[in-house]
Design a protein that fits this description.
Layout (H helix, E strand, L loop, with lengths): L1 H7 L6 H8 L3 H31 L6 H10 L6 H11 L40 E11 L2 E10 L4 E8 L8 H12 L5 E5 L3 H4 L1 H9 L2 E5 L9 H15 L7 H16 L13 H14 L1
Parallel strand pairs: 1-4, 4-5
Antiparallel strand pairs: 1-2, 2-3
């Protein structure tokens, strides 16, 4: 603070007199000024890179993810410095917003329910051992668009999805599971976890699980935390894509969601639970290590 005072009042007083009055050395002041000038030069070089990384994240990344990207590029800096630069440039990641929740799944008392085999064991070390699924909705001027996803707990990647106007199993859970199975071709014992909605407990869906030799697991009644990872994905999707946009048609929403999942989320977006790698990067590193061993 004393050196900053000296620097700010050089036009009024001599450096020597101020240093004497503040009981600091002139050599110390000039050394501080040299370091400060160097930091400002580095800041000037960093600003366009921070801005580019922020824009490339679709304005979704906060300072920590920007810092991680810069560290991987070889920059020696800190999250605090990145936060300061972002603040100076007015770069603010999309904020969390609250939207009234619409009920998307309803249970059917006549359908068979299954135990919670997963029991919140969300960390999985092998691909295609535990999938989770759920349904959410997106509002458009034409009405609701329902999004069903299948998520692999191993790398948090979306391995199957379906978008539909109606909430029937034939348009939601069945096509999403078929896509996931076709894309991944799982060979190990596989568990599928969901809530107790009728789209998951119905005969057609349970029959497809049986055909694919997939064991069902279901959340306890009314407990969203039993399927927290998919809930977290939906929250991220809505904060980063949905809440700041208005969709005129369902088709417009479908195209935006497709691009978000397949281009950004699965391939580019850094996940803190994956050591700041995208789902694709995380799986590629796993396969590479497996082949080496």
């Amino acid at each position: 603070m004393k050196y900053q005072f000296v620097a700010g009042h050089r036009s009024l007083y001599s450096v020597e007199k101020m240093c004497k009055a503040l009981e600091v050395s002139r050599s110390g002041y000039y050394a501080w000024r040299k370091r400060s000038t160097g930091r400002r030069q580095v800041d000037r070089r960093m600003r366009p890179i921070v801005k580019a990384l922020f824009d490339n994240s679709r304005q979704n990344y906060g300072s920590y993810r920007i810092w991680y990207d810069m560290r991987s590029m070889g920059w020696k800096t800190s999250p605090r410095r990145i936060a300061r630069l972002m603040s100076e440039m007015g770069l603010v990641a999309k904020a969390t917003r609250v939207q009234k929740k619409k009920r998307t799944t309803r249970s059917n008392q006549q359908h068979v329910k299954f135990d919670n085999v997963l029991n919140r064991q969300f960390k999985q070390d092998i691909p295609n051992t535990v999938w989770c699924g759920d349904i959410t909705y997106i509002s458009t001027d034409e009405g609701f668009l329902h999004l069903t996803v299948v998520l692999d707990l191993f790398n948090r990647g979306i391995v199957g999805w379906a978008m539909s106007h109606r909430m029937t199993a034939e348009q939601t859970t069945l096509p999403a599971l078929r896509m996931a199975y076709k894309n991944r071709q799982p060979y190990a014992p596989l568990l599928f976890h969901s809530d107790r909605g009728s789209q998951y407990t119905c005969k057609a869906y349970q029959g497809l699980l049986n055909e694919f030799k997939i064991q069902p697991s279901m959340s306890r009644k009314g407990d969203c935390y039993d399927n927290a990872v998919v809930e977290s994905f939906f929250h991220t999707l809505k904060v980063e894509l949905i809440y700041d946009r208005k969709f005129s048609t369902r088709k417009e929403a479908e195209l935006a969601i497709f691009e978000y999942i397949e281009v950004f989320y699965n391939r580019q977006r850094l996940h803190s639970t994956l050591n700041y790698k995208s789902p694709l990067m995380f799986e590629e590193e796993y396969l590479k290590m497996k082949n080496v061993s």
